[in-house]
Every structure is written in structure tokens, then in C-alpha cells.
């Protein structure tokens, strides 16, 4: 007899052993609870056979070790050079404490958007620090919590200026020394809105002919000037002034607010965020106080909790969570929270004195380079600058750039006879010596001792005066501050976040590791293509895999959010219609259940939105759809649908809807928000879709980062491929600042596809559907489950109806906040149906975690019963007092339920329980008393009293 027993267990099977939560044995138990004989049978009952794809996804899977080895090979194909290209992207030093404790910390990168403020106090404070930093440096009192990139922020500012300007002009002035990619995106955004763009020298501005103007400060070629006269002229003409600016430059330069600017925009990339071949980076926007309620995106504000203690929340957040559909002025529904947090900690880490020192070092290095070049007889411009100059080299341009590349330096080509040089934080004596050598200058550059900034343009105001920017910057103190803030949050590293439509799945460590490698992080997005061969290989292979998954023929990786993907997809459809001479096609049919960003995106494209009714079971009302498509006739441009539906159901009529659209000459846009229910089972490009965006931060494992980054690339059928977004440096139709959007995080999705393999991706979809149906089955007796589909099954998410409990005074908010006591983030609240909870467990949650969630929901149901049967009044119940804090636990207890019931309900951990740092936040108070920068320290004391 031998003790040796062969095993077929494969510990390197990433898909089934690491990513997918339930074990095979647990799946059997779950299938029994669901009432399905097998996983295959459940899928057959859920997904209509008529739309199932015929082929399987069959590429092999890599182990984690093999994946990292492959990534290392690809990384070596990138050539990391010193890029002095500038144009909005700069070398920067990420402090190791920030890289390890923020960027590489799942407590920060796996958190969700802070819609439940009680469990997001840490990142809300960090984002408030970001807003304070931006407001201080730009000299404008209100800033938002970040936008996608500088170019799209500038386009948002243009649209905001049009709404707020009292001028009747229809033109917008764009100074010619804006970064080229910003001009390109502004032109894209302006066209469908009927805004006429006027580009020219600042001296050519005719203020009375425009509703607004945007200036770059410092200009893309380095020029700095006081914009006060131009801004005054705009104000005299009732127009608004926007300044695209640089936060590091503003540590030395007169701030836009001091010049009278109405809005400031820019990028916080050089505050410790790697270039990453284009992103992700946190853009910013700040404005005058009178304009704050028109500002797009998220604004973190200060409020109070139920006990009167100070608490943070997203102010005015209903603008975003329930976007005003076809009346929307922006489709912004995400931010760059993780990158904004990094930038804010960079400012905390260095403080105002450190930032000024870095800015002075950058500036004096640029002066030293300019002096050395002039001493050698070169023509250098401008005379006044911060970090950028251009050098006239005549016909020797190509030779100079080649000589610099030979010495490991990239320069910027400017026109036919100049090269641009932009100095950054990483520029040192060695870089300067190599640069000058490329110009044939052997002498060492003399250290500059005078600025090239006129006295009138030197900043004379203080900034970053709040104590948070003056804390002891010893690393021990910094690490403790970052830990304190992360401990105030609830992220995926603590518990399941069962948000319907948001797919909070595992973000595996192996997928995340390569993005911090310098071979990927240190590349400039406008570096020569031969230096980015590794990126090209990764992006090409990811594109091919996404085409196989979706059934589309081509992809654009440029959109850097889901809403940007929607917008880009609709612009692609519009361009196709125009090319066919169908300029009249301007109607977009959108079901009532659609994401709020769908009609918002259509409105931004200049389309007229026609809403389609829903049938009683939640499906699209096909008759109403057919009637409205027929009425639109040759004006029908597109239909936007989500599949599976926003109600979490595979509708049998999807092909019929697509056919009706095509009969009338329209194009079908399928929202990819629910792609996690399709991968390996259904290809949207084969069921009638012409274009889809994919939320890579949902289905394809890019983490949500506390509210960003995201990526929303679009896939199209071949007839639409020629109309995809163009290169933002030169092309028509660019929607983002960089050619591949937030390119560095595409590596995460590529790694996910490689480690899962084709079979693993398909199995993930199947288990996501199993997990959702398991929850629906377990809770069906306690809660009404809406929209179970024609076969009594849900897709990858289910909607729990809490509206009947309103008769007893119990609200959906009560249930959501009580879940915090149980140790969970609430599901998606009141969408797509008001008064409901939409639950999506994803495939990554184990049966044990799902059972813990079910136990929590059942215990809450018991508490609702206590209220309904009048054993306790709702206002005195644990539901209304939720969430419970440690302060509740230790203070005098006069409630009719026990401390244990209040603080340790079913599902909560006893030893390492998560305690929310604040009680229920008063949203109305925060909106009435809008405070969007760090409050003074005495306010903390007042709140405590």
C-alpha cells in the first residue's frame, strides 16, 4: 500500500483557484439552492439560446509567474528615455511612501466611489485636501475632486462657460499656444454643440465676439504673460475667461485667480503621478464661487453626522448619481480619485516650502539650459518662461533631435525649424550635460542664480496654509496619516461591495504589479513609437482579444472613462451618417431604464433624445420602440440599449430591437456596463450591435480606485472603423488627451485576459450569473425580487424591492446604512428603480462571503418586521440609528434595543469589525452649507462639542 495519491488539483489555475470565488463543491451547493441541475442548465435557463455565440474563447491561460515573466519581456521592449517633450506631461518622482501606501495599497485602489460617505471618510478627506491644494494654487475658491485629463477638463470648462456667460456670442476663443491635444479635444466637443472655435494669438482676441476664451499659462512653448488685460476685456463683454495652467508653475507664478480668471483647469500629473504613456492622471478644475453649482463632476464637501460631528460627503452629488438625462449639460460620471489622492499626498508630503523648492529647482535648471544655449549663439525663446523654451535650429532640426535621442533624450519637434525643451523634477546635471552635448556644447552649464520670470509675474500670495500641509513630514508620521485615512474606509480588501452595474470584482495583485514598473510608468505619451514597442504589443493583443470577445472588428482605446466611451461611440455613429450624406439623422432612442449617462452623452453629441417606455416586466416595450423608430424615420441616428438590460435580465427581444433600428437606417449602440454577463456567452457585435463601449474598470478587472481611474474603449463593426477617434495631436475627433487614453492601466485588463484564458473568462461569466441567482433565491422569501426574466432567472445582478417597507416608515437609506453595521457596502441604491437595491456579487465572491451578506439582509428583514408589527417605532429602531459608531457603543445607552443588536448584528465580524468613523451624514445640511476646501482646525473642535 502506498500513501502516494495523484491529484489533478492545479494550484497555478488562476481563473478557478484565485479569481473565481466559489469552489466546485460550493457551486454544487449553490446550484441546489437555486434549483438547477448543473451550471450549464442554469445558463441555458438564463441566456436565450438564440443569441449564444457559436465559438468558444480558447486562448490558453498563464499562471501568475508566467504572466509576470511575459510582462517583463514586453516591458523590456519599451525604451525608457529622458523625455523633455513637455506638452502637459513631465517626469516626476513618486515618493516611495506614496507608491507603496497609496498606489500599491488595495485599501486605496479597490474602494468604490464615495456615494456612501460614512464608509469613505478617509478618501473624502484626501480628496478634500486635493480640492484645497488646487483652490489655493489657482487662486480660485472652489475646486472639484478631479476630472479625466487636462484636455477634457478644458472642453468641460468651455461648455460650462457657454452655460454661464451672459454674452450672446456663439464663438469660443482658443489661444494658439494651448497644448495641441487640448485644442483637438475642444474642437471635438464644440462641433456637435454648435460652438464656433476661433483660434489665434492672444493679441488677436476680440472679446466682444466670443462667450468665452481659454489661455494656456505657461503656454505650450513656454511663454508666460499677465492675462489680466485680456480677462478684463472679456468681462466687459460679459464673457468668461478660462486658464489652463500648471500647478508646479503656480508655486512661483502669479495665480489665475489674481488675474481675474473665472475658471482654471489643468493636470496634477507632475505631482508624483507617473506619465504612464498617457495616464491615468488627475485633471483639475477650479472656479469663482458664483459658478460652483454649474461645475461638472464631483465636489467633496463638509457636513455633519447625526451626532453633530463633522463629516465629509459628495456635495451636490445628485447631479451625478441621477444625471438629468436629456437635460444634462455634462455626462461626467467618474473621476480620477486614486490619482487625485496621490497628488494630494504629494502636496502633503512636500508642503508649500518643498513644492516651492522643487519649482525653483526646475525653473533655474531651465534658465541654466537657456543661458548655455544662448552663450553658444543659439536663438532661444521666450525670454520669460517657467520650465519650457524653444531653440531655433533651422534645417538641423532632425539632426539635433537624433543627436539628443542618441544621448537618451527626447525633444519636442516645433514647426520645421525649432525644438522644444521642457525641464522637470527629474532633470539633473547629468541630463543637462547630455542635452547640451547634443547641441555640440561641451562646457558645463553654469548654475543659474536669477529667475527668468518678471517681477510682476512672481507670486506674492501664500498657498497651502492649512495645517494638513504643515504636518511633520517624517515618514513615520506620513505613513500613519495614510493608514489612519485608509482605516476610515471600507474597500474590497475588507468586504464584498455588491454594487449592481458596477462589478466590483477581484483586482489581482499580479495584474496590478507591472503598472508601477518604470518601463511602463516612465514613458511619455508622445515619445517616438519605436520607444513604445512593448506598449504596442500589449495594446494590439488586448485589442485582438476584445474583438474576439465582443464580435466587433476594431477598437479605439482612447476613451478614458465609460461615459467618454459612450460619447465617442455616438460621435463615431454621427461621423458615419455624415459620410453617407445623412446629416439629418439626429434622433436617438433610449429606453427609460437606461443609464443616466446615455441620454447625457446623446445630448452632448447634439442628438435629440426620444425616450422609449418599459414593459411591466422591465423589458423594452417593443411596440413603443417600433412606433417611435417609424416616426423618426430617416432622422433616426441611433438607439442606445444596455444588454443584459439595466434591470438585470436577458431580454428575448434584443435582436428584434436591433433589426427595427437597422430597417430605419439607424445604428445600434449597446452599452457595455453589463458585459460581465456576456463574456464567452454572447457577442454584442453578433446580435445586432454596431458599437459598444467596455467598462474595463468593471468587467476587465481595472480597480475602481475610490472613484477612478476608468477606461471605456469602444468596439465597432467594420463599417464604423474609419470614423473612430483620431490622434489627439493631429487627428479629427479626438476625445481624450492621449492617443490610448489612460494607457498604463490597459496592462491590467491585458494581464486579466492572459491569466484567465478564454475558458476562464467564460467560466467567470457563468459563475457571476450563478452567484446572482443564488442571492436572489436565498432572499426571495424575505424581499420581493423584481424582473426575474421570462424563465424566472436574473442575469449577473438582481433588484431587491424595498418600496413596500415605506408603508412602515423604513426607507432604502435605512437598509443601506444598516448594512454598514453588518460590515458591508450597500448595493446600488434607487437605480434603475427608485426605492430598490441592485445587487451584483460578481464571480469573485466566495460562498462564505455571499452567505454573510444574505445573513445580514435577513437580519435586517427581521428588524423591518419588528417595526411593521409595532414592536419598535422606526425612529427608535437600529435601522434609523444606523450606522453605529464606537461613540455610540461607549456613550450612555437609552435605546429600546441592545448595544449588541445595534453594534454587532448578523454578518459583522466580532474581533476585527469595521467601525464607521461617523454616524449617518446629513446630506441636506452639506448642500445648504457648501464648504469644499479643508475647514479650519477650530471647526473640528466645534463639531466635537
UniProtKB/TrEMBL annotation:
Record carries keyword Oxidoreductase: yes
Reactions it catalyzes: N(6)-[(R)-lipoyl]-L-lysyl-[glycine-cleavage complex H protein] + glycine + H(+) = N(6)-[(R)-S(8)-aminomethyldihydrolipoyl]-L-lysyl-[glycine-cleavage complex H protein] + CO2
GO terms for cellular component: cytosol; glycine cleavage complex
Molecular function via GO: glycine binding; glycine dehydrogenase (decarboxylating) activity; pyridoxal phosphate binding
EC number: 1.4.4.2
Domain Glycine cleavage system P-protein N-terminal: from-to ranges: 17-439, 453-726
Positions of modified residues (N6-(pyridoxal phosphate)lysine): 698
Names of the cofactor(s): pyridoxal 5'-phosphate
Major enzyme class: oxidoreductase
Subunit composition and interactions: The glycine cleavage system is composed of four proteins: P, T, L and H.
UniProt family annotation: Belongs to the GcvP family.
Protein name, UniProt field: Glycine dehydrogenase (decarboxylating)
Primary gene name: gcvP
